[in-house]
Amino acid sequence: MSTSHAYEVALFGEFFAQDLPAILNRLTLHSESAHQMHAREIVFEPFDAQSQRDSGSEPILLRARKELLDPESKWMMFSYLKPESVRAYPEATVRPWATCQVVGDALTFASALGYIRRSQIYKRGYIFRRGNLVIQMFQQENSDLKTGKPIPAHVDTLWEVEVKTAAPVRNTQETPLSQSLDAVLEVQLLMKGLLDLRRQDV
Predict the structure, then answer these.
(1) Exposure string for 53-67, b = 16+ CB within 10 A, e = fewer
(2) 107 pLDDT higher than 90
(3) Residues near 33 by Cβ (< 8 Å), separated by ≥ 6?
(4) Which residues form the signal peptide (predicted)?
(5) Could you give the count of Cα atoms lying within 13 Å of 39 in the half-sphere of its Cβ?
(6) Confidence bin at 79 (pLDDT 50/70/90)
(7) Is the pLDDT of residue 175 over 90?
(8) 67: which strand partners?
(9) How far is the C-alpha of 40 from the C-alpha of 150, rounded, in Å?
(10) 140 vs 106: CA distance, rounded Å
């Protein structure tokens, strides 16, 4: 594994709305902070994505995220590469990622890089901080085709959970990837019986 890459270590899960109070309580109890989130996320793909797929290579997608509840919030751009193999990391998703803050408009920035917008969703829920981890718990909202504004999720919409490193981690002697793996697996253990957190290849 190259040390030049920075990685995200993550686990994922989902649950039904009726389990929200119990899961919320347990996560709040084991986190240093918790606050509400409402984020807009846009996925961009290269303008030649289809021809890349036709030639057998998977195009690298760009993602832009903006927190809507914080008026000072700026767009964050990030991109993931293919996850490391399940043989190397059977317990959690480990994938190279790069991130940068965008001054101004993310859509203009992405199009200057040769990317076009593919999809947009809103995520509404909660964010928890625990050490070097961020835990997002949310329902997805679609956007109104005319206005682009979010449409509130149906009460029965599944809740999704992402437990991941808050910032890219380099696999060095000072910050071995095993530390981050241990941290996400600790959350998996804490949630056992309430929420099944697992590796996924996305």
Answers:
(1) eeeeeebebbbbbbb
(2) no
(3) 128, 129
(4) none
(5) 22
(6) very high
(7) no
(8) 39
(9) 9
(10) 21
